[in-house]
Amino acid sequence: MDILLTDGPVGISVISGLIAKAGSLKDAGGHSLFLGQVRSDVSDNKTVKAIEYSVFEKMAESAAGKIKAIIFSEFSDVRAVEIVHAAGLVQAGEISLFVMISAGHRQQAVDACRKTVELVKQRLPVWKKEIFDDGTQKWQQNI
Amino acid sequence: MDILLTDGPVGISVISGLIAKAGSLKDAGGHSLFLGQVRSDVSDNKTVKAIEYSVFEKMAESAAGKIKAIIFSEFSDVRAVEIVHAAGLVQAGEISLFVMISAGHRQQAVDACRKTVELVKQRLPVWKKEIFDDGTQKWQQNI
Amino acid sequence: MEIEVFFFGVLADVTGIRQKHYNDVGSFADLRHRIEDEFPEIVHYTFRIAVNNEIVNDEPLLSGGDEVALLPPFAGG
Amino acid sequence: MEIEVFFFGVLADVTGIRQKHYNDVGSFADLRHRIEDEFPEIVHYTFRIAVNNEIVNDEPLLSGGDEVALLPPFAGG
Predict the structure, then answer these.
(1) C52 is a domain residue
(2) Which among B36, B55, B62 has the least Cβ separation from residue D53?
(3) Cα dihedral angle (C15, C20, C24, C27), rounded to 10 degrees?
(4) Which of C50, C72, C77 sits opposite A121 (nearest CB)?
(5) What's chain B's average pLDDT?
(6) Does the distance separating the beta carbons of B19 and A39 come in below 8 Å?
(7) Whole-model pTM?
(8) ipTM value for the complex
(9) Which domains does chain B have, with CATH numbers?
């Protein structure tokens, strides 16, 4: 499985489980992680209360597989790539995206993590609708 | 407190607790984390079984405070910096260092995390002795 | 031929549906005209096309049973 | 004056101790000579000096009760 899609936010137990699993990679010296969190942005006097994510699940799996193939081919020191994305409603302060790269040394772990996050934003078939505190909603694009 | 020193490896419960706490930063959009893990390096036909860390605790606190001051002054988007380092024995596959940067947006989170890890390696008064599978030991320097 | 069409993101709101079955589809152009006739608002939105979960160029050759998905710009993360 | 000296990292192994109390210390140079006389191996190692938890230059002015730490190159992470 190349991506885990959670029903609602990416929970702490999923994150803990993946970190604990990485301990079995005895030749890994570092893990670089990125957690994307829903931010209480304010625009036009309205505050983001939550984001609703919709995911094209069948395509997400193959898109994540391609992302991993790119990372493994560009970063020879990378041992493992984990991608978790939320589907459905995620409240402000909750986690919508989790990426973890395990590598022999820290430099490639950090570079590969940054690149994976960019590829996730470009290539993963996911859409988001901001839900404001006044009940209004707005489809949002990545900038 | 500017640094947490754990007795033995940085455990998953410490990591989970800090990640969960970061959810209260409602204006944070991303967290960049680095986990340093003891690697089973092989040299001269010996395999690293564990690393014993010794820490100058009184100085570690002030060194960590200076590191945080540098990060906050260079990265205006950073909301929180967490540094945890192991003291004592850490087995291969266990975590010796945990850094987490919370920021409004991902770019500064990632850049600040990388810089914090470099500063930790340069400035934190910590020493490590590799313990090999044949019982021999060797003080190790950062490369 | 029979084609299953999926509407994602904002297009699910624009059309009011997530999925629709079309019978007697002659070609992709034919399918597109039928969708645009039924949901005229859709022409104001940018989207790409996937056939059977793979993104394709604008005028793909369809086969019976294909799944066509209309994909607004991605916004994950 | 009385000075407490701490040996870190490899220096704790070289000296066999982590901490030692020195009486009647006249100056840092005096302290250094006494340490080197007692632990001659120590001259083969690189280290910096901290006084009261702050790194200082090579010949700090000491006051009674100061804590002096000998710090090999850091190797955290």
Answers:
(1) yes
(2) B62
(3) 60
(4) C77
(5) 96
(6) no
(7) 0.95
(8) 0.94
(9) 4-140 (3.90.1170.40)
- Distance between CA atoms of A36 and A46, rounded to whole angstroms? 21
Pairwise CB contact (< 8 Å): C74 & A125: yes
| SS percent in chain C: helix, strand, coil, step 5 | 30, 25, 45
How many C-beta neighbours within 10 Å does residue B132 have? 18
Instruction: Give the CATH number for residue D19.
Output: 3.10.20.30
Side-by-side strand order, sheet with C19-22: C19-22, C3-7, C67-71, C48-51, C54-56
3-state secondary structure of A65: helix
Query: Residue A126: its chain C contacts at CB < 8 A?
Result: 74-77
Q: Let me know if residue D77 belongs to a domain.
A: no
C11 and C45 in contact (C-beta within 8 Å)?
A: yes
- CA B20, B22, B26, B28: dihedral to nearest 10 degrees? -130
Residues in chain A with pLDDT < 50? none
Using CA atoms, how far apart are residues A33 and B35, in angstroms rounded to an integer? Answer: 8
Number of domains chain D is built from: 1
pLDDT(B143) > 80: no
Q: Which SS3 state, helix, strand or coil, does residue B47 take? A: strand
Residue A113 in contact with residue A41, Cβ under 8 Å? no
Residue D7 structure tokens? 């040996």
Q: Is D46 on the interface with B (CB under 8 A)?
A: no
Restricting to C residues 19-38, those with a Cβ less than 8 Å away from any Cβ of A are none
Q: If you average pLDDT over residues C44-58, what whole number do you get?
A: 93
Q: Chain B window 67-106: which residues touch A at a Cβ cutoff of 8 Å?
A: 92-95, 104, 106
Range of the domain at D53: 3-71
Average pLDDT along chain A: 96
- Residue from the list D6, D50, D77 with its beta carbon closest to the beta carbon of B120: D77
How many Å apart are CA D9 and CA D74, to the nearest integer? Answer: 9
Record: contact A110-B109, CB cut-off 8 A: no
For residue range A113-137, list pLDDT tens digits in order.
Answer: 999 999 999 999 999 999 999 999 9
CB contact under 8 A, A117 and C77: yes
Q: Model confidence over D9-28: pLDDT tens digits?
A: 999 999 999 999 999 999 99
Q: Kindly state whether residue D35 falls inside one of the protein's structural domains.
A: yes
Residue D76 located in a structural domain: no
**pLDDT value, residue B134:** 96
